[in-house]
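hiii, so i know i said id send this last week but things got crazy w the move. better late than never?? heres the sequnce for the chain we talked about at the cafe, plus the structure i predicted for it. fair warning i was half asleep when i ran it
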Amino acid sequence: TDVITWKNPHVIGVSGVEGAAMAAWLYRHGVEAVLHDFSAEGDFEKNFRKAHNQSRKSEQKALLNKIRRLGNLHYKKTYLNEIDKADGLFLPQAWYKYQFNKPIRKILDKGIPYETMTSLYLKLHPGLTIGVTGSQGKSTVSSMTVDLLKCLIRPIASSKFSCKLVGNNRFCQQ
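okay and structure toks below
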């Protein structure tokens, strides 16, 4: 993907689930990124653990240590420093809802490319994707859809067919 070719990617909100996952994904692909989080340095671990409260303590610790090893992490005092030098941004879904992220809009208006977890997943996933949206019932509809598809493909299934439930719901982690 062209995302991997970015020379100076910036990841916003690395104490959150999406930002941490994106930073870890880049790291696994050998890409160094500049990381940003609006937490004060002393509050970063507390905010990280709060956002990752569905993960086991050992998983939290491992991911937190990985993020700290990635280096170049801008906390609240230097939040968004050098973002104008980015050639691509990784943004959490709700980045635009926060006043302190207003400078990001100016960067995007200049044409700097960006990705979210959803857009990156859709680019990288080779198969059919079914999206379920709305304000209520997404988990139920998603689970029922997966169960139905598994029943339909089981009789004709070979190793090349699979059906997975992924996303931001109470049953799946990113």
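btw Confidence is low (pLDDT under 50) at residues 169-174. thought thatd interest u
miss u guys!!
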